Amino acid sequence: MFFKNKPKIISSATVAGPKECAGLVGRYVDYALEDDMFSESTFERAERKMLLYSIRRSLEKAELKGADVLISGDLLNQIISASFAARETGIPYLGIYGACSTMSEGLLLASVLTDGGYAKNAVAATGSHFSSAERQYRYPLELGCTRPPQSQWTVTGAGSCVVSREGKGPCITCGTVGRVVDYGVSDVNNMGAAMAPAASKVILAHLHDTGRKPGYYDLILTGDLGILGSRIVKDLLWEKGTDVFPNHDDCGAMVYARAEDEFQGGSGAGCSASVFGSYILHEMSAGRLNKVLFVATGALLSTVSSGQGETIPCIAHAVAVENEPS
Amino acid sequence: MFFKNKPKIISSATVAGPKECAGLVGRYVDYALEDDMFSESTFERAERKMLLYSIRRSLEKAELKGADVLISGDLLNQIISASFAARETGIPYLGIYGACSTMSEGLLLASVLTDGGYAKNAVAATGSHFSSAERQYRYPLELGCTRPPQSQWTVTGAGSCVVSREGKGPCITCGTVGRVVDYGVSDVNNMGAAMAPAASKVILAHLHDTGRKPGYYDLILTGDLGILGSRIVKDLLWEKGTDVFPNHDDCGAMVYARAEDEFQGGSGAGCSASVFGSYILHEMSAGRLNKVLFVATGALLSTVSSGQGETIPCIAHAVAVENEPS
Predict the structure, then answer these.
(1) Can you tell me the distance from the alpha carbon of A234 to that of A276, in angstroms, rounded to the nearest whole number?
(2) Quick one: closest CA in A to B202, which residue?
(3) Tell me, what DSSP letter sits at residue B296?
(4) Cα-based distances in Å from B86 to A213, A253, B69, B162
(5) N or C: which end of chain B has fewer CB within 10 A?
(6) Backbone angles phi, psi at A2, to 5 degrees
(7) Residue B226 φ/ψ, nearest 5 degrees
(8) Reported ipTM
(9) Mapping DSSP to helix (H, G, I), strand (E, B) and coil, where does residue B318 land?
(10) Where residue B259 falls among pLDDT bands split at 50, 70, 90?
(11) Which of A50, A44, A42, A63 minimizes the C-alpha distance to A162?
């Protein structure tokens, strides 16, 4: 999909938890939480408040009082964080689900709606919370289960981008909608390995459709493959004759200061949303990055599907974000 | 949102369970199930198979081997029916979540993508299964809980529409994205009452934005408000000076032959999908209906949000489907 009218990311806002702010995003987020409960009584309410904060702050920064449409989703059952946040904003709302790929799906749809003239502006937002995700997908935190070394740590954070045809900011020039890819991985603690094939396929499809070489981009940024998954995606692309070793990185691999508890790095919809919305857009506005291919990745499993012995279907969407030549 | 290039619903396919086929849709569906397990071992697999069948059959009827994009979602946690069905088709996939409003959200996005030239054709599909929904949202079926009289019955069925700029079929001329509306209803057995305000608001917004009178449409069709909810939406609109008594009906109120077990009628994403995709499109192709406003409605709760004492946020999107004047 090519966007002729150059929809732009005119503002973004992010919020992240204390563990995350000890790492890369700490210097760039709009709100660094000291308490990951965000003064709320449940993890789910804290997650919702982060998402709502990031949406409101991104609109404020764009000097807008509302938007034509909000495109949002999250990891919780029935995407309650997004729906309840949408209720508070009163913005016309399209709920999406793409697990951790939500941020690229949201940016793609926001681009389509604004580029096609169906909306003046559109907000794409998502987030996640370690504790709400952990107790929904894995075990009650109180159990204190040991985590295997191939596991990742769900990022407590949220990010929101306002996309508009008017205004200033990096352009979304084109994008590629991914297919569901399933290489038969059924280890729910090894999401990076499960998602890497989906990421490599959509990157290959994107480069093929646009006729671009991997070197065209300053950075090919995957969502939350983590350290292991990031290595796998580089190898898979290398096998296909595409070398992304010089310019590939991964939000999950970047987000934490040290890989100890969190082993392979960060994951969750809030991982790519907070890293892209803070650090990456900051580097783009400073001109240190000019062409970024943002490929958030999602694992589309549920506890029921895994319980019924299914493998993990995965998806990734590619969004090309480029500074206009000055 | 107005669609200048007249995207058309060039084909549709539906499948429904035995209880549903005893009612309205029995004569119109592509596949009437004799066994609601669809020869599968779990309810979830049966639901997925129905959805996959309807997607494949709608492509077959449109004489297509694939499509540019599939937009789908369902009621299960992490929309596993849609994601696993997408894996089988291999079509580029955008997951959405709008609970029972999924069919109108899907048709709106399919219209945007095809009208704007981002895709040649797009498939919008959804479905639900009584037994998988019941055990996820309410109680294990084996408990044999008594159902209160204001409750509805989740439809076992699925529907898929192929939208394209080329070809023949009723046009999607315009649509209105809804806001999340919450009137404070917290009774999870009274979805009709919870969703009616969202439906009435989006109908009013649609009529206001388009300058159309309610009588413009042969039928204003809500998704799954049921008998009680359908009465509420008519009253709410009447209070605002909009009379839809002559031309309003509701898929949930129409779907079952008799309201006994199912009390207020049908619900679920498969309700509006199977009724719209079979009976309504059949009546449109026969010329007995020419202008239909399709307003599927969704209740955006989860068991966690209800358990934490939250009320039910609801949404509805309006899609105008019109035969071209001959």
Answers:
(1) 20
(2) A92
(3) E
(4) 29, 28, 10, 15
(5) C
(6) -105, 140
(7) 80, 180
(8) 0.94
(9) strand
(10) low
(11) A63
